[in-house]
Design goal:
The complex is a heterodimer. Chain A is an alpha/beta fold. Chain A has eight helices and seven strands; from the N terminus they run βααβαβαβαβββααα. Chain B folds into three domains: about 180 residues, 2-Layer Sandwich (Aconitase, domain 3), CATH 3.30.499; about 90 residues, 3-Layer(aba) Sandwich (Aconitase, Domain 2), CATH 3.40.1060; about 170 residues, Aconitase, domain 3 (2-Layer Sandwich), CATH 3.30.499.10. Chain B has 15 helices and 19 strands. In chain B, the strands form five sheets. Chain B has a five-stranded parallel sheet, sandwiched between helices. In chain B, helix 3 links the parallel strand 4 and strand 5. In chain B, helix 12 runs parallel beside helix 15. The chains are: A alpha/beta, B alpha/beta.
Chain lengths: ~200, ~475
């Protein structure tokens, strides 16, 4: 996993509620391997028509939002299927931070495993950012994870909260497996005590 | 005296290996269920040169990519899809994990197989790389879906870091009317609390209606918890649970059974336990339900009409409704019972168990489907049971295809797809845009309602066919 670096990038607005992971990455692509690359499949059926041509109205196809690395989303973003490929598609496309008033729980956890920062911000804050982006498409926003600060399209800073452990993992580019393997003795001791009580598993 | 605890609190506390200063806990996992969508997770494990820590706690079956036309691997005619099933066979063989493979009658949809084999038991933490893992909560377990990285983590450590969700209780009291099933109850719940209504919570379903549901009904109910945003849904174990589990292949036996039972009886939430959120429904007000939109929360009684976007709570909801109606090809005010359908699918981890097939066959008997319709049993054992009862003949005579077990047209990953623009009455769990195929339109409903739609060619109140 790549360490999370401060962002100063174009932000793309996607003001749709309940964007499910089937929209982020349709099921028919899920047989692919991680290393094959997923960015070109992001939002596939929203982004491309039946002939495979880009739909000009879709936000990521508009020239102002070329190179977007920040996505401004609406509530319950990433609901539905647990497919981690939704995060891979966003990440491989270049998105490093998704801001939304709320997220699907499984998607939210999957983000941290892949170096993507899901940021939950109050709806009014996001609405103001959205209006600013719509008024000036192509505006840049900033995300400084170290300082826990997002700067809006107007440059105004907004502090955010994040679990210290998850923050450190993102900044260092670590996932949890190595840390957990270091707890082998505790895992063993727990299993011994547990299986003494629950012997029928 | 200890503080009153919910069932979720109790199961959580019994599995904490370690708690980090930031509040996340490392939880021991009792059962890890894997399927043919898990190959990237196995590759992550191998990439780190790690092994499956507890192959004895890990069980696999192929469901997402399998053909419903035959049990040969060759029946999967697309090489990339066939490779997913072959990968699962290879990974489980190398790692010593039990696989219910294509040639095994125990093969089926992972959320049908777990309970059926007695692998899913009260008090357990059960995970699987699939969002419908909440299904197993019907037996009084804490069961939830995880992503591929988390699957790899559990394979490597038999444990998982989690932050504790909040407690939510949904209480349904009263008696369900004839023709109203568990599917209608869960659709009514999701319609009431919304697609994000359970986000950040574990839902415990309670009340006299839930107690009166069979285990199979409870499995249907818990299955769709994720459609309300809740990663897990659960029902307290009771005599129905113990009766269901007794004698199943992986259920405890002899002295272990008594020991298990004593432990399971301590699981239900304490009377004084507090829930962070509560919702109540009156069973008497629940009618057969259908969805009209592209979120499972877009559900309404079959007696109703397509709603008016202008009546939406806010601008976001209104926009979402307008887009959904455009995709679905519906207009506000249209009676739901006048919507013509082109296809019917009975199956999926929501509604493919023997009780579902019995109820559907009862309506299908002596009638004839006027549209292409298929029945996909949830497992080889469900299929065999249905055939022993002659249900397959009833379905075939009524013009339904009788297929081999798998996820099939719920998600279409095996190629069982709804054609673009076609409208499918489906007993599955998601009506998302493109879920059953690009441009496909899905109406979620119960198995008996699906048969009613098949024989009339339109969404139909099944009670009209019951002589009620």
């Amino acid at each position: 996993m790549e360490p999370f670096k401060p962002l100063d990038a174009v932000a793309a607005p996607l003001p749709l509620v309940n964007v499910d992971t089937d929209q982020i990455i349709p099921a028919r692509f899920l047989w692919r391997k991680r290393a094959e690359g997923w960015g070109h499949l992001l939002f596939h059926d929203l982004r491309f028509d039946d002939a495979g041509s880009p739909r000009p109205q879709f936000v990521l196809n508009r020239p102002e939002f070329a190179g977007a690395r920040i996505l401004l989303a609406d509530r319950n973003f990433g609901c539905g299927s647990s497919r981690e490929t939704a995060v891979w598609a966003l990440y491989d496309y270049g998105i490093r931070c998704v801001l939304a008033p709320s997220f699907g729980d499984i998607f939210f956890n999957n983000c941290f495993q892949n170096g993507l920062l899901p940021l939950q911000l109050p709806a009014p804050t996001l609405e103001a950012m959205l209006s600013a982006l719509q008024a000036a498409p192509g505006s840049r926003m900033g995300v400084d994870l170290e300082q826990q600060c997002v700067s809006g399209p107007d440059g105004e800073p907004h502090a955010f909260e994040i679990d210290p452990f998850r923050k450190q993992c993102l900044l260092a580019g670590n996932d949890e497996v190595a840390a957990t393997l270091g707890l082998e003795r505790k895992l063993e001791a727990f299993e011994r005590a547990y299986e003494a009580k629950v012997s029928w598993l | 005296m200890l503080e009153a605890a919910t069932m979720f609190d109790k199961i959580w506390a019994a599995h904490v290996v370690e708690t980090r200063p930031d509040g996340a806990s490392l939880l021991h996992i009792d059962r890890h269920l894997v399927h043919d969508g898990s190959s990237n997770a196995f590759r992550m494990l191998k990439g780190r040169d790690l092994k499956v820590r507890r192959p004895d706690r890990t069980f696999a079956t192929a469901d997402h990519y399998v053909s419903t036309l035959g049990r040969d691997l060759a029946a999967i005619n697309e090489p990339s899809r066939r490779a997913m099933v072959e990968d699962l066979e290879a990974h489980t063989r190398q790692m010593g994990v039990t696989l219910f493979g294509l040639r095994d009658q125990r093969q089926g949809i992972v959320h049908v197989v777990g309970p059926e084999q007695g692998l899913s038991q009260p008090g357990m933490i059960i995970v699987c790389g699939d969002s419908h893992t909440a299904t197993h909560g019907a037996l009084g377990a804490l069961a939830f879906g995880i992503g591929a990285s988390e699957v790899a983590h559990v394979l490597a450590t038999q444990a998982l870091w989690q932050r504790k969700a909040k407690n939510m209780r949904v209480t349904v009291d009263g008696v369900l009317a004839p023709g109203v099933h568990a599917k209608d109850v869960i659709l009514a719940i999701i319609a009431k609390i919304g697609a994000g209504g359970g986000t950040g919570h574990v839902i415990e379903y309670a009340g006299s209606t839930i107690r009166a549901l069979s285990i199979e009904g409870r499995l249907t109910l818990c299955n769709m918890s994720i459609e309300a945003g809740a990663r897990a849904g659960m029902v307290a174990p009771d005599d129905a649970t113990y009766h269901y589990l007794h004698g199943r292949p992986y259920a405890p036996k002899g002295a272990d059974w008594d020991k298990a039972l004593a432990r399971w009886r301590t699981l239900p939430s304490d009377q004084e336990a507090l829930f962070d959120r509560e919702a109540q429904l009156d069973a008497g007000e629940i009618t057969p339900m259908v969805t009209w939109g592209t979120s499972p929360a877009a559900a309404a009684p079959i007696t109703g009409v397509v709603p008016e976007p202008a009546a939406a709570a806010d601008a976001s909801d209104r926009d979402a409704m307008q887009q959904a109606l455009a995709y679905m090809g519906l207009r506000p005010g249209q009676p739901l019972s006048e919507i013509a359908i082109n296809r019917v699918f009975i199956g999926s981890c929501t509604n493919s168990r023997i009780e579902d097939l019995r109820a559907a066959a009862k309506v299908a008997a002596g009638r004839r489907s006027v549209v292409p319709a298929m029945v996909v049993p949830g497992s080889g054992l469900v299929k065999a049971q249905a055939e022993a009862e002659g249900l397959d003949l009833i379905f075939r005579r009524a013009g339904f295809e009788w297929r081999q077990p798998g996820c099939s047209m719920c998600v279409g990953m095996n190629g069982d797809l709804v054609a673009p623009g076609d409208r499918c009455a489906s007993t599955s769990n998601r009506n998302f845009v493109g879920r059953q195929g690009k441009g496909a339109r899905t109406h979620l409903l119960s198995p008996t309602m699906a048969v009613a739609a098949a024989v009339t060619g339109k969404l139909t109140d099944v009670r009209q066919l019951m002589g009620a």
